[in-house]
Design goal:
Layout: E1 2-9, H1 19-32, E2 36-44, H2 54-61, H3 63-66, E3 70-73, H4 76-79, H5 83-95, E4 99-102, H6 111-131, H7 133-144, E5 157-159, E6 165-167, H8 172-183, H9 188-197, H10 213-218, E7 226-229, E8 245-248, H11 258-273, E9 291-293, E10 300-308, E11 313-321, H12 322-326, E12 336-337, H13 338-355, H14 359-376, H15 378-402, H16 407-431, H17 440-451, H18 460-470, E13 471-476, E14 481-485
Helix pairs in contact: 5-6, 6-13, 8-9, 8-11, 14-17, 15-16
Bound molecules: zinc ion.
Zinc ion binds near residues 293, 321, 323, 330 and 332.
Length: about 500
């Protein structure tokens, strides 16, 4: 694995570790985990008031070139000036398919800090969405109109000449058979047999097998809902992020009515969670799809181990990094006991819910804090100043032309200033967070929803629901587990 390292020291804080001490800890960590540090960036503030971050900016700017898997810092507070900064740069790093690791985690952050994090991540998410909105507009518009975004349409549908979904009259009856039989309790094998007997074929013209049915039964298109992935996963080794999908109901013609579709989903959810009696004790991994290796970012997979005794056997479940399982590229090769990790995650969910005593007053407190953080964000101020200056310059140049100056002499200046203005505008947008976007009621609703999450730890279905509702991802490092909650959506 390849990494870049970043260390920062400002003499304002007498107690912080020196650059060399920070780098020592980073290198220790890298050596221990077989990580190769390709480049080191260091910012050292000369005085208490200056906060020189040239190397930080360079590090971000060079991500394309260095293309690391990881960005290693000593502690998170070394990485960013404040939480705003952190949320934005973390996204920037993610965009480059790298991940940020603070080798020495700042512990002692209460659940309130975690909530703050989710709210800020919400902002960052909102911004990055809006910044690249233009690019995605085309795709989104297609989705809105129920147009196909590439690939082969699923069984039961064809495309008209504008690329819109239409029901394929020959194939659609097969879809109906599949859903109806599932409702009647047929097994996949029985359904496939019936389809083949009736002469239906899959989209690729082959007979049906039991394995092809699950995805069909789960496909919301049959119920008219268009599911559109706003961003493609950062890399093929990462699972799809459920928070980044957009769903538009009634966007395409239905083949299955809502009632039937919902009932089938219910049946499938249930059968997922219950061990099938004839298959012995099946272990249900509650974090599947959400749990990732902290070191390499790859999804962790359930790993079941059955130990046989004289007269009985016991089955144990573990999570293990998918990359470490196959190759030596990732050194996170430990098998982590499923129960330990799941209980920790469930504990964190409970703790977070319990930490919200009064959503109203907590929202007030968070907004005040957010505003304070925002005012501290002087990068934004700086950029605005520059922008005003550039706009004035432009104004003067055009005035000069208006009052008779030779435009040919001023053209290059004019072009240059115009370019600079556009660039600055972009940067201001990136750096700034309009606080008014966060209306209090929305925050109160978010907190209330989080507060009301309750579940019985012994009920797998309830636990699963609580996890799906609150957790964005769980990162497992050799020495710790990090739980990321879903962000507030704006
Ligand atoms: Zn790994």
């Amino acid at each position: 694995m390849r990494a870049v390292a970043y260390a920062r020291y400002s003499s304002a804080n007498q107690r912080e570790e020196s650059i060399s001490a920070q780098l020592r800890v980073i290198y220790d960590y890298a050596n221990k985990h077989g990580i190769n540090i390709a480049k080191v960036y260091v910012d050292e503030a000369q005085s208490a008031t200056s906060d020189n971050r040239d190397d930080f900016q360079r590090m971000i700017a060079e991500l394309d070139e260095t293309s690391p898997d990881l960005v290693l810092v000593h502690k998170l507070d070394r990485f960013a000036r404040d939480r705003f900064d952190a949320a934005f740069y973390r996204r920037e790093i993610k965009k480059h398919r790298a991940r940020l690791i603070a080798v020495e985690q700042d512990f002692g952050e209460g659940p309130e800090a975690g909530l703050m994090e989710s709210i800020l991540e919400g902002f960052a998410e909102y911004f990055s969405k809006n910044l690249s909105r233009e690019v995605k507009k085309g795709h989104t518009e297609n989705a809105m109109q129920g147009k196909h975004c590439g690939g082969i349409p699923p069984l039961g549908y064809s495309l008209d000449k504008d690329g819109k979904y239409i029901v394929n009259k020959e194939e659609a009856p097969a879809i109906k058979v599949i859903f109806e039989r599932k409702l009647e309790g047929y097994s996949y094998k029985q359904i496939a047999d019936e389809l083949n007997k009736l002469g239906y074929k899959t989209k690729s013209g082959r007979p049906f097998g039991p394995n092809s049915l699950h995805d069909i039964l789960r496909n919301e298109k049959y119920n008219g809902t268009f599911v559109f992935r706003k961003t493609s996963p950062n890399s093929s080794r990462q699972a799809e992020d459920p928070t980044k999908t957009m769903r538009i109901e009634n966007a395409i013609p239905k083949i299955i009515d809502k009632d039937t579709f919902d009932k089938v989903q219910e049946i499938m959810d249930k059968s997922r969670c219950q061990p099938r009696p004839n298959e012995g004790k099946q272990i249900r991994y509650l974090l599947t799809g959400l749990i990732r290796c902290g070191l390499c970012g790859q999804a962790m997979a359930g790993d079941t181990n059955t130990r046989k005794y004289k007269n009985s056997s016991a089955t144990y479940g573990y999570y293990k990094c998918g990359l470490a399982k196959r190759t030596k590229e990732c050194t996170n090769s430990t098998r982590y006991p499923k129960n330990t990790i799941e209980l920790e995650v469930l504990g964190r969910i409970e703790k977070r819910a319990a930490s919200i005593k009064n959503p109203e007053s907590m929202a007030d407190k968070l907004i005040t804090k957010l505003k304070k953080d925002f005012e501290k964000n002087d990068r934004q101020k700086e950029l605005r100043k520059l922008l005003t200056k550039t706009e004035k310059e432009l104004h003067n140049l055009t005035n000069a032309i208006a009052s008779g100056a030779d435009p040919r002499l001023l053209a290059s200046k004019l072009n240059e200033a115009g370019k600079r203005r556009d660039q600055l505008k972009e940067e201001v947008k990136k750096a700034g967070v309009p606080i008014d976007l966060l209306d209090k009621q929305r925050l109160v609703d978010f907190l209330r929803e989080q507060k009301e999450i309750k579940f019985d730890r012994n009920d797998e279905v309830q636990c699963l629901a609580a996890i799906r509702k609150t957790i964005k991802q769980v990162l497992v490092y050799p020495d710790r587990t990090e739980v990321e909650f879903k962000e507030l959506s704006l």
